[in-house]
Design goal:
This protein is mainly alpha-helical. The protein is built from eleven helices and four strands, in the order αβααβαβαααβαααα. The radius of gyration is 18 Å and the shape is globular. The protein starts with a helix and ends with a helix.
C-alpha cells in the first residue's frame, strides 16, 4: 500500500521507532505533529493512532488492508520474532513477539474490530483485500486519482515469500558494489526521487534509534 501511494505521487511516512518513548508515556503529540508533515502514513505507530489522526486532521481518508491472521503472524514472526521493539511494547503490551504470539494476534484482531466500529456509517474508510484482487481501480476511485497503467505493487516481501524473480533481483543486487548503490541513492535524492532505503522518510531516524538500543 505504501508503494502504491508513492506511485500516485504522495509523500509517505513509514514506521518510526523513535516515537515509542513519548507514546509509552501516554503522549501522542510528537507523533501527531510529525504525521502532519506528510501526505500519507503507513505502518506503526500510525495505524494504531487512527482516532487521534482523524480528530487532529479532519477530512483525512483511511485505508484498512485485510490479511489472513495466521499469515500475518507467520510473517511477523519471520521479521522480528525475538527482537525487543519498544514501539511494540506500546502497541501490544509486550515488546517481543516470541512467547507472546496469542497476545499479538488478539491485538491484531481487536484492531480490525475497533476500526470497523469507529468508521461505521462513514464514507472515509476504504477496505482493501489484496487476496481478492483489490488494486488500482478501487484505490484510485477512493482517492480520486487517475489509475496508473502498471501493475499494482507488491513490495517489502520477507525472503521467505520470495519467488524466483525476487531471488534473481537479490542476487543481482549483491553483485553490484556498495559504492555504486550508494551513488545511485545520492543521485535519486538530488533528483527528489525516493529510493528503497528511505522511500518512507524513516531510514535515518530508525537507524539512530536502533543504535541507541544497542548502546
Amino acid at each position: 500500500m505504501g508503494i502504491a501511494l508513492l506511485e500516485l505521487g504522495y509523500t509517505a511516512l513509514g514506521a518510526r521507532l523513535d516515537m515509542a518513548q513519548s507514546l509509552l508515556k501516554g503522549n501522542s503529540q510528537p507523533a501527531l505533529e510529525l504525521a502532519g508533515k506528510h501526505d500519507a502514513l503507513q505502518d506503526v505507530p500510525w495505524a494504531a493512532l487512527y482516532k487521534e489522526l482523524d480528530q487532529r486532521y479532519p477530512n483525512s481518508k483511511f485505508i484498512l488492508t485485510l490479511r489472513d491472521e495466521d499469515a500475518w503472524l507467520h510473517s511477523a514472526s519471520k521479521h522480528f520474532k525475538d527482537t525487543y521493539i519498544p514501539l511494540h511494547e506500546w502497541l501490544y503490551g509486550r515488546g517481543v513477539l516470541q512467547g507472546n504470539e496469542k497476545r499479538y494476534l488478539e491485538r491484531y484482531k481487536q484492531h480490525y474490530k475497533e476500526v470497523l466500529s469507529y468508521f461505521e456509517d462513514r464514507d472515509d474508510l476504504l477496505i482493501m483485500d489484496f487476496s481478492q484482487g483489490d488494486g488500482w481501480p478501487k484505490l484510485c476511485a477512493f482517492l480520486n486519482e487517475p489509475t496508473p497503467n502498471k501493475s499494482f505493487p507488491h513490495a517489502n516481501k520477507g525472503k521467505h515469500n520470495y519467488d524466483w524473480k525476487d531471488k534473481t533481483k537479490e542476487v543481482i543486487r549483491k553483485l553490484i558494489p556498495g559504492s555504486v548503490r550508494r551513488a545511485r541513492v545520492r543521485l535519486l535524492e538530488r533528483m527528489g526521487l525516493h529510493h528503497g532505503r528511505n522511500r518512507f522518510n524513516n531510514a535515518e531516524a530508525n537507524r539512530k534509534e536502533r543504535q541507541k538500543r544497542i548502546k
